[in-house]
Design goal:
single chain; 292 residues; alpha/beta; Rossmann fold; N-(1-d-carboxylethyl)-l-norvaline Dehydrogenase, domain 2; six-stranded parallel beta sheet; three-stranded mixed beta sheet; globular
Length: 292
C-alpha cells in the first residue's frame, strides 16, 4: 500500500523535496500559503490540499519545511496534532532553534506520536536533485521510521542523537560554513592586493593547508574553480538572509549554553552588515564584496 505524506511548506527547498517524494512512489498531499507553490506541487504530481489540517488528515507521515520556530510550533499545535491519525510520524525539516524543536517533539510524544527534527544541508539544487544531507534528532525508533522517507529526498541521512540534536548539528555546521567563507573571502581579497592572480592563489591554496569547501567547491570569485553563484553575479545558491538567520540561531544557542564562539559572532556581524546594505537576496559568498 502506498504511503501517504502530508507536506507543509513548499518554498524553494520544500517544493523540490516534495517532488522527490512523489518520484519515489509516495502519495503527497501538499499545502502552502502560496498559490504558485501549490501549482508547482500539483505539476510535480502532488495533490493540493485546502489547509494544513486537510493535508494531514489520514496521512501516514507529515513533513514540514517552514521559515522559523514560531511557524513550526503554531502549525503542529494548531493544525497537525488535532488532525493526525494515531501512529502518524512527524518530520520537521525546517531550520529552527533547538529549544523549540525539543518542545514540539516533547508535545508530540506526549500525544502518542513519534517525531524527529531533520534539518537539511545542500541548498536548492540538492533539494531539487534529491541529494540533501539530513541531520536527524529523535529516538531510535522514530529515526528508523523516518529514514526511508528522508532517503527519498537525500544522499545522506545521519542520526545525530536525541530530540533537538539535528538542529544543533545544522546550526553548528552553518556557523562553521559562514566563518570559513568569510576567511576565504578575506584571503582572496588580500591575495589580489598583494599582486597574486586569483587562479594562481586558488591553485596553491586548494592543495595546501588553507584548503576548505568554501574555496574548492564554492569559490567566491567568478571564473575560479568549479562554477558557483559567483559566476552568476551571486544569484541563486544560499542567500545572505538565510545564512544570517542560521548564524543568529547559532550564536543564540551558544549563549544559552555558555559556549564561546568569537568567530561565529564576527561572521554574524559581517553578514548583518551585508544584509543591511540590501544584499540579503544574493548568495552568501557575495560577502567578498564587503571585504574587497
Amino acid at each position: 500500500m502506498t504511503t501517504t505524506i502530508a507536506f507543509i511548506g513548499l518554498g524553494n527547498m520544500g517544493g523540490g523535496m516534495a517532488a522527490n517524494l512523489v518520484k519515489n512512489g509516495y502519495a503527497v498531499r501538499a499545502f502552502d500559503l502560496s498559490e504558485d507553490a501549490l501549482v508547482k506541487a500539483e505539476a510535480a504530481g502532488a495533490t493540493r490540499s485546502t489547509g494544513a489540517a486537510d493535508a494531514v488528515a489520514g496521512a501516514d507521515a507529515v513533513v514540514t519545511m517552514l521559515p522559523a520556530g514560531k511557524h513550526v510550533e503554531a502549525v503542529y499545535t494548531n493544525e497537525v496534532f488535532g488532525a493526525a491519525k494515531p501512529g502518524a510520524l512527524f518530520l520537521d525539516c525546517s531550520t529552527i532553534d533547538v529549544a523549540t524543536a525539543r518542545r514540539v517533539i516533547e508535545a508530540a510524544v506526549a500525544k502518542g506520536f513519534e517525531m524527529v527534527d531533520a534539518p537539511v544541508s545542500g541548498g536548492i539544487a540538492a533539494a531539487n536533485g534529491g541529494t540533501l544531507t539530513f541531520m536527524v534528532g529523535g529516538e531510535d525508533a522514530a529515526f528508523a521510521k523516518a529514514k526511508p522517507i528522508l532517503d527519498a529526498m537525500g544522499k545522506a541521512v545521519i542520526h545525530a542523537g536525541g530530540a533537538g540534536t539535528g538542529q544543533g548539528a545544522k546550526i553548528c555546521n552553518n556557523m562553521l560554513l559562514g566563518a570559513t567563507m568569510v576567511a576565504t573571502c578575506e584571503a582572496f581579497a588580500m591575495a589580489q592586493k598583494l599582486g597574486l592572480d586569483p587562479q594562481t592563489f586558488y591553485d596553491i591554496s586548494s592543495v595546501s593547508s588553507g584548503q576548505s569547501w568554501s574555496m574548492t567547491s564554492y569559490c567566491p570569485l567568478p571564473g575560479v574553480g568549479p562554477q558557483t553563484p559567483a559566476d552568476n553575479d551571486y544569484q541563486g545558491g544560499f542567500a545572505v538572509a538565510l545564512m544570517l538567520k542560521d548564524l543568529k540561531l547559532a550564536t543564540e544557542a551558544a549563549a544559552s549554553v555558555n559556549a564561546s564562539v568569537p568567530m561565529g559572532n564576527a561572521a554574524e556581524a559581517l553578514y548583518q552588515l551585508l544584509a543591511n546594505k540590501g544584499e540579503g537576496g544574493r548568495d552568501f559568498s557575495s560577502i567578498i564584496k564587503l571585504l574587497s
